[in-house]
Amino acid sequence: MNIQTRHTFGRSVRIGLLGGIIAVFLCLVGIVEIFGQRSLIEHLISLGHVFLFLPLLATGYLAAKDNSEQGQQGKLSLLLAGVLSGLLGGAALSIFLLIGNLIDIRAMFIHASPTLYGMLTFGRGMPGAWLPLLIGALLGTLGALARLLPPKVQQPLVRGLFGILLVGLFAGLVRPLLIARSGKAEDLGRFLFGETGLTQAGALIFFVLITGIIVIWSARGKTLQVRISRLPRAGQSALRWSSIGLLLIMALILPQFSGAFIAQVIVLISLNILMGLGLNITLGFAGLLDLGFVAFFAMGAYTVGLLTSYGEYGLAHLSFWSVVPIAIFVAFMVGAFLGLPVLGMRGDYLAIATLGFGEIVRLLAGSDFLGPWLGGPQGVIGIQKPCIGSLGPFLGAGIPRVCHGLELGGPKEIYYLAVVCALIAAFVASRLRDSRLGRAWMAIREDEDVAEALGVNLIQTKLLAYMLGAAFAGLSGAIFGTLVGSIFASSMQLMVSFNVVCLIIVGGMGSIPGVVVGAIALIGLPEAFREFSEYRFLFYGAALIVMMLSKPGGLWPSSIVQRELHVMEKDEPDPKSAPSVSTSAK
Amino acid sequence: MRTTLTEKFGEVAVFMFLWGFRILVVSVVVVGTILSIRGGKYTGVQWMDFVVFGIARGSIYALIALGYTMVYGILRMINFAHSEIFMSGAFGGYFLANAMSHTGFLDKNPVLGLIAAVLVGMSVSAGVALLVERIAYRPLRKAPRLVPLISAIGASFFLQYTFRGFFGPGIYAYPNIKVLTGEWNILGIGILKMQVVVTVAAFIMMAILYTIVMRTKIGKAMRSVSENKDVAALMGIDVDRIIVFTFAIGASMAGAAGVLYALMFRQVNFFMGFVPGIKAFTAAVLGGIGNVPGAMVGGLVLGVFESIGPALFLGGLGIPRPYQLQDAIAYIMLVLVLLFRPSGILGERLTTKKA
Amino acid sequence: MKRFTLILTVLMVASVILTACGPKATATPVAGETLPPVVQPPAAFVCTDALGCVNIAPSDPIHIAFWGVLSGADSTLGLDSQYGVEIAMDDAGGAILGHSIQLTTEDALCTPEGGATAATKLAVDTTIVALVGSSCSDETVGGIATLTNAGLTTISPSNTRPVLTAADRSPDYAGYLRTAHSDAFQGKAAAEFAYNMLGIRKAATIHDGSSYAQALQQVFVDNFVALGGTVVAQEAVAKTDTDMHTVLTTVAAAGPELIYYPIFVAAGGFITAQAREVAGLETVKLMGADGMFSPDLLKGAGTAAEGMYLSSPDFSMFPGTYLAFVDKYRTKYGTAPLSIFHAHAYDAASIIFAAIKNVAVVDADNTLHIGRLALRSAIYATSNFPGITGTLTCSQYGDCGAPVIAVYQIINSDPVSWDPGVNPKKIYP
């Protein structure tokens, strides 16, 4: 073996070991054991096994990919690389099994249980400790094979498999909906989906469907795109508007078909979009890192709560519609109130001060000190739902007022309110962005001192950034209050503020479509995966890291960032230009 | 530039609001203090007790804050995963301490056992920190400022739930060290032995860190990297190695803090790092972020104010259940300090362009 | 990758739209979903139930759901109850009327929004017959309206907030019952114990900002004052606080003889451990409530827990069947019971099974039809039911629990020696 070969095989060894360590990690964390109870394809493979096999498959694929990039071309050597890495991955698991047999790891790692060992050895116990080696080698070969396939076959195949994985994960959401419909839909539901995953028939059908669509798209898609771009301007915009229109219509009729839970998830996403749009103004446009955004949300929620509740803490008993403007205004003014002390602070000082304000609001709202007015730990309950029509009179504490008309009682109805508000807010935000005020904000974000020198009134502009951002959050809080029907200070956690910051940056800072995408990604997906309650946040954290590593500009970067990235790429090949020193905050 | 009348008016209004805010808070504090002391609810010894408890708390905050401030100084980045690094140190120390206590080793050689536990906690923390740095932060060195922040938040969640997956959601209890239960009488005040040990250990570690940063060659390298990364590279300093070293040192401090914290409070669980992490971050900013002595000062000040605040400021005013607002006091004090000294108590050591 | 996600999104939306293409049931109103009558050969079942029926095909299981706190710091509470339900399923032979029992769980996170979301998700699933849950009272406050309006009935094994089964509770609670006691009894028993048996005249309370603890300590205070005692201090901490020295110093300054802190294990452990370290509290008596009744308290508090009192449902009043139940629990899950409401969960599930047997209409081919209102009424009509927590009768406001509260004292602080009844030992009444 020449040095080159040894070197590249050394890399395969490392990749294999890495994959094996990841597989052992998944075992110790308990994902394999707990997901093992949920099947992906009924009677065939459980979700836990999928998670166990994925790292091993991936090592085979990556080892082959790495080797081919390093110059090895021979098919056999690539396959060998795959086998080797898979073997080593399996070896890690076998060693884990052997150690587990010798000493009681369970005293420390609670998930190193007999069930797990059973899963790893496929029920054979210790005599089967060599099985992971075999499985690893097999999967490594498969992974390498996948790499060896021509791209035209490889892409649809791999994506089809991932598609089945995704559909299987969502099965728990779709199946009850179909069954509730009864009749043909119910039969379809039972045919495609099993108790916890896909039926074998269902898996096959979805696989064929997805790969089919991908193949057709890759064959026809390019020509379709070229044909679209060749259309005259009017035609293109007509196409765009009609597709937006179609999406809107689908969005409008969605709750009727999707059931209350999905409607609720979409309402939560819309509320987060509202908050995200607000923070987008404060942070995305004006560059002010506000980590206490939940304070304004709380203002809106408590205003609605105190002014519409028919419980014991209701100060007045107004209708929801008359209170919403008040809630927005209150949040608006509180934005000024909390923004004034921090006007002079920059960067991370601002971050911690605003974080402090968020916490202060939460603590005061839940304290016994303000309890007689704000409810304390018992919260404000009995918030009236919005009523399109006239509201009956207030009869007494604890008695809901009767609505003569259409009452937006549940998530399916509030869905419309939330989505409409989110759309209006997006429109307002985009107008603001393109206004003089928006430009002033972006000037402040880039460099405060220069902006001031150019005539931007720092105080006014910063305050308006806080106030307008707060107003959006107040609206969001108002809708939240009426959705849940009760408000507790314990809902106004620091985590909410963090989530909003995350969703803006993941979506793309300063970009309005980015806020929508970020909200769907960071709020919708965890809700959809509620079944994995213990590991939701594990995946959430990993997803955040992966998203930042792969797309630092965000999932849908704002056009400015896109242009900047484009410019940077154009500059790079020129060795004479000075490297840009990225010490300034962006 | 000629400012218009409305702008002038706006400026005056803001000026008055800010001064009104400061005066309001200060007067509430002063009135509350006077009423509390006159109220006579607490004896002098009890007031001293509050201060002592505050110092013990504060030294733990200070130890954790050191890690935050050092990483910020070098990378201009808030390492949100630092709270989980603190937690991992506590866990690491736990398993060793538990084993030692089962064999009786801990009771026979408490000092040795303690030092061993602290060392193990420090190494586990450093290991975790290096992993996180390698995977989540290094690829993002050149990214815009907020991107590593999100990566850090993600790492924080990931670590929390990894530890939960490994060790379960229940609590683990540190063993009791018989030698350290009870009080010592120092200057006429009874102070818990545990608190003395923790405070003294914290001060020793801070002193060691300060010496390293100020007096050693590698400390000088750290300081130059935090001044200007690129120039330091031009001077021949291996920036990557220094960054790794900084993370390791900051993490070891947090790991030691974790073991000391767990010795004082006994309970270890996967979520224990979140609140101390936020408090320590507050302490670091309070003292001046990027500034090592500042972190120590900030931690102690925060601890003492949290401890004595509810009884001193709010008790006299007749506010029920003042301890619910203990964190609120800490944050208001932070804002007040930042209003008077925008760069924290000891100020930021370096003048850099901020936004 | 963008294209791929686009395709997938279109696919998902399309599949959801597709569900509309099946023959729709009658238009779904907001309150309650009515299913169409199942068309069958002669002698068919026609559903006349006001809230609709669940129709279970011969090969389908009976779907019961458990909702409670299954993640986070309080997860032992929810898990413990879930285990109780699972053992009840085993004892029923895993089947009722020839249909296997299927249990699904939903995490409600011990918050009102968590309860609301869990309830919404469960209410959509029309195969669910009845539910056991929730664990935390906050979850119920958030989610009960959705469940009641969907025609579902839930029995909680561990909610103890008094207002949930009060006579003036809102109609949203029509579908809610519980086998756990109401804290109105627990606080009263604690106050009587302190005043009469221990001779305490000056007490202090500490709560942790949760609605459970605050309500419970208020009940204690009201009863204690009514008996003639004085409450010298009422303080509060946050659930996540760890350093209790300062609040304990404030309490010490008021000079109480007993501190009553009906909070959860984590904060409770800190207070117990640190109370003895604060000057002035060396001999004060410490008392907690059912939220702390767990071996984890001994872990957190160490030797300081010895001699401490805890109030809890009276295990010794449970008939002998309780001990057999604990044995089954230990064998199946390899641990002593994690919390204290497992038996209540067992009884809740048993009540549901008995009610199903009562009201289910069985077709010749073993299809089951269960009317929702009929089931709810049958559950409310439960009387003299032999449960392992006692003989249970459900009141019209949903109180099924036998509210006998006892006070226990911790004898040995070694977590391994935890054995409810022995350590801690019952000392009152």
Give the helix/strand layout.
The complex is a heterotrimer of chains A (586), B (355) and C (429).
Chain A: H1 3-29, H2 31-35, E1 39-41, E2 45-46, H3 47-70, H4 75-102, H5 114-120, H6 131-148, H7 151-181, H8 184-192, H9 200-230, H10 233-285, H11 294-308, H12 320-339, H13 347-366, H14 371-374, E3 380-381, E4 387-391, E5 403-407, H15 411-433, H16 436-446, H17 448-453, H18 458-484, E6 486-487, H19 494-507, H20 512-528, H21 536-550, H22 559-571
Antiparallel strand pairs in A: 1-2, 3-6, 4-5
Helix pairs in contact in A: 1-3, 1-4, 3-4, 3-6, 4-6, 7-8, 7-9, 10-15, 10-16, 10-18, 10-19, 10-20, 11-12, 11-13, 11-18, 12-18, 15-18, 16-18, 19-20
Chain B: H1 5-39, H2 44-75, H3 82-102, H4 105-108, H5 110-137, H6 146-167, E1 172-173, E2 183-186, E3 189-192, H7 193-215, H8 217-227, H9 229-234, H10 239-265, E4 267-268, H11 274-287, H12 292-314, H13 326-340
Antiparallel strand pairs in B: 1-4, 2-3
Chain C: H1 2-18, E1 53-56, E2 62-68, H2 75-91, E3 95-96, E4 99-107, H3 112-124, E5 128-133, H4 137-149, E6 154-156, E7 176-178, H5 183-197, E8 202-207, H6 211-227, E9 230-236, H7 245-254, E10 258-260, H8 265-275, E11 285-288, H9 295-301, E12 309-313, H10 321-333, H11 342-359, E13 361-362, E14 368-371, H12 372-380, E15 385-387, E16 390-392, E17 405-409, E18 425-428
Parallel strand pairs in C: 2-4, 2-5, 5-6, 6-7, 8-9, 8-10, 10-11, 11-12
Antiparallel strand pairs in C: 1-14, 3-4, 12-17, 13-14, 15-16, 17-18
Helix pairs in contact in C: 2-11, 3-4, 5-6, 8-9, 11-12
Quick overview:
The complex is a heterotrimer of chains A (586), B (355) and C (429). Helix content of chain A is 71%, strand content 3%. By secondary structure, chain A is mainly alpha-helical.
Report on this model:
The complex is a heterotrimer of chains A (586), B (355) and C (429). Chain A is mainly alpha-helical and 586 residues long. Chain A folds into 3 domains: 1-148, no CATH class; 152-222, no CATH class; 260-566, ABC transporter involved in vitamin B12 uptake, BtuC (Orthogonal Bundle), CATH 1.10.3470. Chain A contains 22 helices and 6 strands. Residues 572-586 of chain A have low confidence and may be disordered. Chain B is 74% helix and 3% strand. Chain B has one domain: ABC transporter involved in vitamin B12 uptake, BtuC, CATH 1.10.3470. The two termini of chain B are 23 Å apart. Chain C has 2 domains: 53-181 and 319-404, Response regulator (Rossmann fold, 3-Layer(aba) Sandwich), CATH 3.40.50; 184-316 and 406-428, Rossmann fold (3-Layer(aba) Sandwich). Helix content of chain C is 37%, strand content 19%. In chain C, the strands form 4 sheets. Chain C has a 7-stranded mixed sheet, with helices on both faces. A 6-stranded mixed sheet of chain C has the order 3-4-2-5-6-7, sandwiched between helices. In chain C, helix 6 links the parallel strand 8 (202-207) and strand 9. Chains in contact: A-B, A-C, B-C. At the A-B interface, helix 1, helix 13, helix 19 and helix 21 of A face helix 1, helix 6, helix 11 and helix 13 of B.
